[in-house]
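Submission sheet (multi-component)
Chains listed below:
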Amino acid sequence: MKSKFPAPTPGRSGPRPGQSATLRMVAREAGVSASTVSRIINGTVKVSDGLKRSVEAAIAKFGFRPNAAARGLALGKTSTIGVVAQAIDSPFYGEGLRGIETGLRQRGYAPLIMSGNWRIEDEERCVQELIARGVDGIIVFAGRLSDAKLKGYAKSVPIVVTGRRLRAPRLLSMQIEDAKGSMLAVRHLLDLGHRQIAFITGSENHPDAIERLRGYTQALVEGGIDFNPNLVAVGDWHEEGGVRATLELLDSKSRFTALFCVNDQTAYGACLALYRKGLSVPHDVSVIGFDDLPSSTYRLPPLTSVRQSIGELGERSAQGILELIAGRRPRIAAPDVELMVRESTGRCPGS
Amino acid sequence: MKSKFPAPTPGRSGPRPGQSATLRMVAREAGVSASTVSRIINGTVKVSDGLKRSVEAAIAKFGFRPNAAARGLALGKTSTIGVVAQAIDSPFYGEGLRGIETGLRQRGYAPLIMSGNWRIEDEERCVQELIARGVDGIIVFAGRLSDAKLKGYAKSVPIVVTGRRLRAPRLLSMQIEDAKGSMLAVRHLLDLGHRQIAFITGSENHPDAIERLRGYTQALVEGGIDFNPNLVAVGDWHEEGGVRATLELLDSKSRFTALFCVNDQTAYGACLALYRKGLSVPHDVSVIGFDDLPSSTYRLPPLTSVRQSIGELGERSAQGILELIAGRRPRIAAPDVELMVRESTGRCPGS
DNA sequence: CCGGTTTCTGAAACCGGTTGCAGGATCATA
DNA sequence: TATGATCCTGCAACCGGTTTCAGAAACCGG
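Outcome: structure written.
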């Protein structure tokens, strides 16, 4: 009953030259059964010292590493966490992914990253693909997927989602304090004597953008200033949108001495546009961003920004998903926002 | 002979609420055998129309997606490509990873990304871990691992490595034309009348840094200028190193009117340091970077840089690894370097 | 109307680890 | 020394797909 079954010949590549060793090969080499080797590797039970030594020798000899697919199949887990990002190449996501990787690595998990490209259907495809790949959990980093869908998916796999507030079993959401961050920024500008403060938002219907706009208006009102819709322009979260929106603002009749941008990349664009128009930051216009990307420290001038430590958020997401997997109900919140004052903001010219 | 074997109870989580359907469940529902369902899904053989329809109905009903671990085990492949990056959060790698993901996605592969953190031992751990996870191939994006090790690993799995030239079976290397890029940059500066051109390198023993330095000296020599070691400073590939190195250069007695940096991030730091010292770019000093990161277009002033389309490099790496997996010997080279002239370079003040 | 194809379909082996159960060896106790 | 408790280890079932082989059904021409 050994091998009536002919070699399966997977694909056309044939048996690999360096074909990795199997558990049974190690077992045969060490003169024990596969179960014993497995138990030694996982430390499931104690085995006699002699055996242990010889098995370890055999493992070393073959350079054996248990096949993850087989192990995953048997255990029903893959030690892999799916991550849905939106654009793997944006500095924002880069930092978050680093945090996630760091958080997962130390527990023996690895991230399987996919990009949603800000498209709801791409995102959905990602989630399904990840589930099919049997990830043990999914982290949705700032997605667009509907709450209902997310809850539904949470039935088949634990989910951590950032950027919204949502309660469901086996799901953890972490909301950045967008409004609070905006208020910090605007208050800082008010303190500097600015009264005409413009705002460049992201895509108009994006929840984060909406919240940040809300914080902006609220802080203005608290400062006794009327909200002026002409001082709000629409960007696209990227530098390009920042340039465009800033030019629009400058072309409109409304004057402003300070500019608060929905994120740092938008602020970068804004600074460039101001520079093109011969305006100096912060002399003529103060500029504040949101996110505090690492490179903001090195802008000219260094950009004042609302810090929301994305890296930390990533690490916490990782921690959260692992807790969920362990069956616990984690109570983890996003890190606090905080204003990093640098050189792109200064006293209002006239004041 | 149904189930004398008690439920294995994987972990403590028990059977999941939304436990995904299995092939046999679908088969039972459709009144056929598992083999038939498998064949229909993979299109291995033709089946009668009626069966096909009812099986598809059953699949849809359960929302069935074949378990990737099981499939991987049976097929001996995982449709996953391991990627060893160095720092997932650097803009450089971000762009490369996007390219890789794009290239893989369309062929049904997904990247499993790990960070080597520029440490050779981390990198090695990554590669081993990836192999254990049964990836079908590995892309090493600008690594430090020795050529010999790499060749060794290539015996167990196809490898694409960027940033060096190396020939081995089942291995494809793609070398960026570092020296050529440097020469483009320096020649541009020479054309603008600069004669004192400084250079900030990366970590001193890094192959890319060495090559870029070589291109720099060669272009100088061709321009009839002696190489002056006092005009070379050491950075760390990051903004911080650029700042430090620039300050060192300024403090030294050697004057310079142009500054070529080993990469864009270093150039960002250099610009900041110049700004701090009251020097204007490009009025007092011209600055050129290398990589042409997306954000370089939006620097103040927009940075002149040697473009080496990392995204394209990533896509080609993806294409290369898939070719290797298919058993072919791809002939793919890195994209050409090209100088993007922007506003951080201008005519030499005195000329 | 029958033997020979051709086409489908199902049973079962297999991928490579994990683990419940049971049997043998070892040890302690009466 | 007999006997029950404790340890250790091997057998074999199982995870969930894939694939070979063989048998059944449908189709062919003679």
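Remark: Residues 1-18 of chain B have pLDDT under 50 and may be disordered.
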